[in-house]
Amino acid sequence: MKRLNVAIPTPFHGDESLHVEGFEGIVAYQKQNGIESLLLSGSTGEQHSMSIGERLEIIRYFDQQRFQGIELIFGVSAIRTRDAVTLVQALETSVIDVILIGFPPYIRPTQQQAITYVEELLSHTTKPVALYNNPGRTGFDLTPESLYTLISRYPNIVGYKETGDLQRHLPVTYPDEFIMFAAGDVNVVEHFNTGRCNGLSSVAGNIYPQEIRKAVSRLLQKEQVDAGPIEEKVSRVISGHAIINIKQHYNSLGIHAGICRAPLL
User: Fold this and answer.
1) DSSP three-state, residue 169
2) What's the DSSP call for residue 211?
3) N or C: which end of the chain has fewer CB within 10 A?
4) Are 26 and 62 in contact (CB under 8 A)?
């Protein structure tokens, strides 16, 4: 699994219907700018605005296109375990390289219920898996103890995307090749320099792919990076609403990312 991925938007038509053909231009743009890994159907991809059927349609589209030279990660999250299982089963036979398992939104499972949810999904795949902890959006916060329990049982869990407190993971010893991803670009230089993360799932990379790629490459080599210019660019991306800004950027380049689904107007 690559240590940098860019979480890309999902293209929609003006009537909010899915426009899978729009992915072609987004993928090409990212590849041309040196990005080697893309996250589909994540928070930036408006995952929870889409039905399971629409997410399956995206999987089928990428199976048909078979883009070369790019790692593909697909986000899986659902309130009902059986819906998440449906997605994982489709991904198991797809061209998608890595599955990103997010926790169910809104229902706030216990730690044990969350572990059981992940274990059920893992029983349906042999692919590399990363877990996604996003307490601000889901209302659930996986503890470092629960994470360690899961990765000690399942060696195909190779990464963890954390929007919560990265500091709390420092006392825990994870496998040597395990990737702790910062979720988003805010304070990314600080996160790398303090040892809190060794990977980035980037949002700003949609608009500044080369700048983010170069900064992460230097940070991984323990080189000094001036945080100021990076933070300034990140601030521009997230000002107002990041997904709206990202789609406007692609559209301005003639790449049909379309609109966001209401209420993101």
Assistant:
1) helix
2) H
3) C
4) no
Q: Which two three-digit tokens encode residue 167?
A: 């500091």
Q: What is the mean pLDDT of each run of 10 residues along the chain (265 residues)?
A: 98 98 98 98 96 98 97 97 98 98 96 98 98 94 96 97 89 91 94 92 98 98 96 96 97 98 93
Give Cα separations from 181 to 3, 130, 249 (angstroms): 8, 9, 25
Distance CA 161, CA 5 (A): 11
Length in residues, the chain? 265
Q: pLDDT value at position 126?
A: 98
Residue type, 70: I
- The pLDDT assigned to 13 comes to 98
Burial of 51: CB neighbours in 10 Å, binned 0-12, 13-18, 19+: exposed
Backbone angles phi, psi at 96, to 5 degrees: -65, 135
Model confidence, pTM: 0.97
**DSSP codes, 43-71:** TTTTGGGS-HHHHHHHHHHHHHH--SS-E
Of the chain, the end-to-end C-alpha distance in Å amounts to 34
Tokens representing 80 are: 């009902």
